[in-house]
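Subject: Interface between my chains keeps coming out wrong

I've been trying for a while to get a sensible model of this assembly. When I model each chain on its own everything looks fine, but I need the whole thing in one frame so I can look at the contacts. Pasting all components below, labels as-is. Any help appreciated, I'm running out of ideas.
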Amino acid sequence: KAGVTQTPRYLIKTRGQQVTLSCSPISGHRSVSWYQQTPGQGLQFLFEYFSETQRNKGNFPGRFSGRQFSNSRSEMNVSTLELGDSALYLCASSFRTPWDTQYFGPGTRLTVL
Amino acid sequence: DQQVKQNSPSLSVQEGRISILNCDYTNSMFDYFLWYKKYPAEGPTFLISISSIKDKNEDGRFTVFLNKSAKHLSLHIVPSQPGDSAVYFCAAMTYSGAGSYQLTFGKGTKLSVIP
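Reply #2:
Try treating it as a single job with all components included. I did that and got this:
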């Protein structure tokens, strides 16, 4: 069974730009969650999508948004990038709920200059 | 305010011995606790979880203990192996029903198992 894939793996942007990251979950998984990992804050939950609907949201500003498509693939968008948005963005999929076993992708490393 | 704390940023253990990773939390409303392991350049891997109504869950070499009165959980790895060397994250979840929840992570503990 193919794992969770994330594209691109690395990205460099400048302040003020926007970025879109993509996540393809494991086949059959309907829950997709996004996380931000930074050295200072550790791993933080961004949001979770289930059946094309945002079901849960962490404490991030509205510049962070996402969506899920009918095939469960998900995208995350960050608008008006700030230096502090530099992080590893991780996507995880699970069958139905996050406490079903979650499988993480390798992440997208975003650097904002 | 950090609701989930892993106070030891790193831990070194001899191969074959027990590794004990600790996690403290402040929110008594957490319903579920999870441990993840992360190798460099890879995404985290789910290890083991425990419901707040239990005090122990075991899966092979991994056992998680929950002490609700102390708001403390620990992950025991016995025996420790060099392949266990990774960063371990503790996470806690509050569940509001109908699929609604909040998930909070600790900052991780880097475990080094010395051969």
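Reply #3:
Confirming on my end. Chain A has no helices and eleven strands.
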